[in-house]
Amino acid sequence: MPLKTFLFNRGIFTQIVRNVGWVSIIYLVGLLFTLPIHIFMMSENKDWLMHHQTGRIFDIGSVIQFSLMFTLPILLAIFLFRYMQVKLSADYMHSLPIKREVLFLQHIVVGMIILIVPVAVIAVCLIMMKPFLPISLYSFKHVAIWFVSTVSMNLLLFSGAVFVGMLTGMSILQGMFAYILFFFPAGIFILLIFNLKYFLYGFAYEYYLSSSLNEIVPFIQALNWSTKQIQPLEILIYTVLTFMFYGLSVWLYKKRHIEMATDAIVFRPLRPVFTYGFTFCVMLVGGAYFGQMQQKMSWVIFGYVSSSLFGYIIARMILAKTWRVFSRWKEYVGYVVFMSIVGLLFTFDLFGYKTYQPSLNEIERAYFGDHIYFFENDEIDEENAFYYEKENIRNIYLFHQHLIEQRTYPVNDRRNVVIGYDLKNGERIVREYTVPTNLYNQFYKPIFNSIEFKKNHYPILRKTNFKDVLQIRIGSEDKVVRLQDRDDIESFLAVLQQQLLHETFDETTINRSWGTISILYEKYEEQGIEWRKSYHLVEQWLQDRGLLQQARVTADDIAEIKIIKNTKQVPQYEWTPEMIEREKAKMVVHDKVKIEQCLQMATWGEEDYILGIYYKNGRIDIQSFSKHFVPPFVH
Amino acid sequence: MIQINHVSKRFGELEAIKDVTFSVTKGSIYGLLGSNGAGKTTLMKMIAGIYKQDKGTITIDGEPIFENIKQKERIIFLPDALYFFPHTTIRQMADFYRHIYPKWSEERFRNMQELFPIDVNKKIHRMSKGMQRQVAFWLAFSTMPDVLILDEPLDGLDAVMRQKVKNILFQDVAEREMTVVISSHNLFEVEDLCDRIGMLHHGSLIIEKELDNLKTNIHKVQVAFQGQIPFSFLQHIDVVYQEQRGSVLLCIVRGEEEQIIAHIQKHEPILFDLLPLTLEEIFIYEMGEQGYAIENILV
């Protein structure tokens, strides 16, 4: 009896239920229409049933389900603890002879009941209506998982919202803080990474922006529940967090001064944390925005200054609850000075990040690529970008060294270079640079010409037999040759391997190709390889079997070619057949050998010569020559 | 017995209560006077255990009041701005109080229906301010409190209702030894109620006195003499204030009544009156002595 009176007070209980019971009703009605009623309604629709057969209850009416899940617990926390945020009711409730712990506990318990009961009722409904459905839409286990997932998320959001409610004296801020609380850890991380990029030359920001960041945002995690079932560990984490939030809330509640109702931040020591934290976050948003839009350091700095000032003023306004806060500018100056020092620390690289390279003999393997993806996913067999051979590691290392020593700013043509090392002691180092396209060819060359690079780059080179190859398609535009005969496949791939092993870096930089060679494996996996015009072995192989005509355009398909010296450097894509006709100074080629030479050299995107290729079937194609690669008869 | 010992309270920059010490004996009525913003409400909320003082102690029957459920069950605090749960009727509020306050007397609640002629099933929020205050008193008295803390309690009540409430207060103090702390910015309102009075100004308690004491020790004297006022007349009595109106001298004198009469008779005045002072007058003169101008303290 004494325990009962201590923990439970009927008067308070009735009052809370009368106050916030409607949340439970809304939730129940909302779920009733999204799940049982909706399912009954759709149970006559065969397509719908087939589509939802997998037991993914979160897929049914997901928009409403998730909207309710993401808003009601937070609304409920706001309404439950509204009594603390209004001066009159705060005074009144705390004049009653009830300890704060008990008051808190009763509100929490009622809140949890309000959130759990509707979900439980719907779960029971789902199970009871199961026999009446034409097909088995879900199993008992599916419903149980749905129940546990929904309840654990509801309680997590609810407890978080209760927790922030203890920190603030305003209901509207409680709501905002609740969402910020759950987005903050991922958000601040992303912001920091986006901003570090501007200060740390070589910072591989993509490496840190991995998808695992999503997992710390409960909202995103929940949205994936229809495809990815909740894991026991996930439930455990949510439960632990929920209880942690409750614990912190009670602790704060007992320390809270009742007269602080209507204040933005209830605990005075937290006010500077709020002011500068807010300023800092807004500053990072501004810096990242202007940096992404303009890609210039001056704009980044502008973003920092303008948005931090803006953030500071807003934070001050929230705290003071007035817009007349402009007299308190000295603290802002202090902030700017502090931030400038931090910025300088990064710029002058006091931690040696930008110039750091491990010693060469510590390196177990080196990573070299134009994006970060395979650094983390090295088990994927399409492509590999790790190098084990000493010579290659050395070349990558020297390239990296050169990038550190001589920083060049790309203007228009840029490419990404990602260099990483796995050290013998298990440490990982990764850097990412954007460099001008052609400036570093001498560094690319030795790496690209190595056998190891080719084996990494072309999966077909790593194969010792071709038993699992079903078919090969060699084709361009409207022509295609299909190889299905085993002997043909074996012989062609052997030739292709030779061709690729002998490919040089210079070949890869010239953009001239006939089309693609695609290799179709069992299980319908497909690999595509660019069919470069320089692949003479492949050409010879097709010629020998009389397949060349079927695989690509030849001189036999062409009526004539008109060549124009593009003195005005009009870009190729702007040329039209009419413009070619209008041009007086042009060379017209009819000779088959010359036409074949033209086809071999023709490419897209160059501006030195423009080619009008007139097919016998009436089609007209416009291509171009670079002045470095022209047939001997053109001058 | 309420004991307030060196209590201070700050609200940020503002020092709301500065080192206040006083006590209220059991079964007495204590009047807390002061203008708006003097700190009355803050002090009362601390006595009611709502706010926590920064310094000092507040005890009721020797126990600190803050978060002390046993003591809070015996206390009712009626704020100047009343709060009721939204959309509740008197009956629902009464049920709530019944579950909260163990000494709740349903019988008393029913009996008081005669004094407060309001339908118990009416929603409190629809009522007028005065009626809401009546409901607050009704509910408060029904919990049989040992300590009643009233912040500007009589605002908004008509004269008849005021008298009714005062009567119940007196009755509870006399019969059950209820202790009352009552605040007001209006002296007349509490003059006939209080046993003891404290005056707050800018957070400090500037006067604290027994009301009877206050009244018996200070007198208004009107005298006139044939010719000049004798030189020695004003020398051997404690004159707080004097004013000449024609030939009549009006002065406020502190001291025992008999002594003052004897002293004045000795000078053979042609006119002599000894009048009692109103509470307001007493304060004016007492505080004038301490360097305060009364208009600034009491509105």
From TrEMBL, chain A:
Any Pfam family the entry gives: DUF6449
InterPro entries: DUF6449
Transmembrane segments: 20-40, 60-81, 102-129, 144-164, 176-200, 235-253, 273-291, 297-320, 332-353
Keywords associated with the record: Membrane, Transmembrane, Transmembrane helix
Domain DUF6449: 421-536
Name under which the protein is recorded: DUF6449 domain-containing protein
UniProtKB/TrEMBL annotation, chain B:
UniProt lineage: Bacteria, Bacillati, Bacillota, Bacilli, Bacillales
Keyword flag Endoplasmic reticulum: no
EC number, UniProt record: 3.6.3.25
CDD domains: ABC_DR_subfamily_A (cd03230)
Name of the top EC class for this enzyme: hydrolase
Highest taxon in the source lineage: Bacteria
Membrane-spanning segments: none
Domain ABC transporter, chain residue ranges per copy: 2-227
GO MF annotation terms: ATP binding; ATP hydrolysis activity
The name this protein goes by in its record: Sulfate/thiosulfate import ATP-binding protein CysA
PANTHER family in the record: ABC TRANSPORTER ATP-BINDING PROTEIN ALBC-RELATED
Keyword Hydrolase in annotation: yes
Pfam families noted in UniProt: ABC_tran
Gene3D superfamilies: P-loop containing nucleotide triphosphate hydrolases (3.40.50.300)
Keywords assigned: ATP-binding, Hydrolase, Nucleotide-binding, Transport
